[in-house]
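Troubleshooting log. The previous run stalled partway through. Resubmitting the same two chains, unchanged.
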Amino acid sequence: QKEVEQNSGPLSVPEGAIASLNCTYSDRGSQSFFWYRQYSGKSPELIMSIYSNGDKEDGRFTAQLNKASQYVSLLIRDSQPSDSATYLCASPGWPDKLIFGTGTRLQVFP
Amino acid sequence: DGGITQSPKYLFRKEGQNVTLSCEQNLNHDAMYWYRQDPGQGLRLIYYSQIVNDFQKGDIAEGYSVSREKKESFPLTVTSAQKNPTAFYLCASWTGDSYEQFFGPGTRLTVL
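Second attempt completed without errors. Output:
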């Protein structure tokens, strides 16, 4: 059974700092990963996807994939209170499913 | 606007009742999914469907049933056999290309 693991947090960072969220996975064959943001009481929203080793940047967000070490990270630069949410990491399972981690709760304080 | 709709937003059920949660999408996606989320927990897959008239059990299918008579619709029935149904239920769909799933707004079910 493929697994995706995250630290549940909360991760607390001051406004303007870099928040670093991490995810490890068990299947060495996993090729793609997704980061979802979920505000309290709302549904998950896809914010980043990464398909190859290395970094992918989109605005204040950077996803990092390290296949050799089997981890994927999400960096949020210049963190804002509006970034406070739970961040879910996911990777494809078979067939046609996504395997989700339990999520990391991020708190950005002013 | 294309998207996924779920109704109702809030649902209250008495013990012993069956209830049906609606999920509709106009994204022309083939695959649809139902997840359950408990407070402070991740997403657990209940059922999914890759094509019309076909569906598969996920990790926690007991006490639930689904149908997929139309591409746009994937309703979930929570039966009286589900002993602890109070949770947040999320429907999602997938293009079939990149594994990126898109979620509806969710239905919060409470058993009274």
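Takeaways: Chain A has a mean pLDDT of 92. Chain A touches chain B through 20 residues (CB under 8 Å).
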